[in-house]
Model the fold of this input.
Amino acid sequence: MAQPEKSTKVYVEIVRQLREMINKDGLKPGDKIPSERELSERLIAGRSSVREALRALELLGLIETRRGEGTFIRDFRGNQLVQLLSTFILQDEKAKDDVVETKNMIEADCLYLAAEKINEDEIRRLKVWIDDHNFEDEEFFRRIADLADNHLFYRIWYILNDYYKALNLKVIPAPKEDYHLLVDSLTTKSGGLILKRYRMLRKLSDE
Done:
């Protein structure tokens, strides 16, 4: 039973390395990424693991495969449907509130999932990252959504975050101490404490 978990961790690590490689190489939407064979050699990973990682990125809408041409970077954040629908949401305050409420719910669910899957080393790296970076709130929760290791939740959060930005709904980062307290709550795996710390971070009422 341990083998599937090990395989999953391998492919998740490859996804992380692929993202870093894309950023390091300065690849932009429309650019072609290396072939499976080249990626396998560059990342020192098996072809099957690389293939699974590419499928995950394609599921998230970050890349697309064109038959006979190769695999290319997609501009998922510039999704025209998101931009189009956001113009209608701007006319409806209730719908605008729904975006905020749903985003909060997805972030809380990602925190619960991350608490079940995160290990001590990942906790340590996340806390070091908090200390060493002046980050935006969305950068923190992108890491949480990634640690939740649920592709559908990640994609839903990504879309909601796009709506958020399209509607100019800015989130001002809380004090770093609040992010540390939230990360500490993940180690307890207590849903009640995680929700309490999340609501504190978001300055939401406990009523």
Q: What stands out?
A: The chain has two domains: 2-74, 80-201. Residues 80-201 form a domain with the Four Helix Bundle (Hemerythrin (Met), subunit A) fold (CATH 1.20.120). The radius of gyration is 18 Å. DSSP finds ten helices and two strands in the chain.
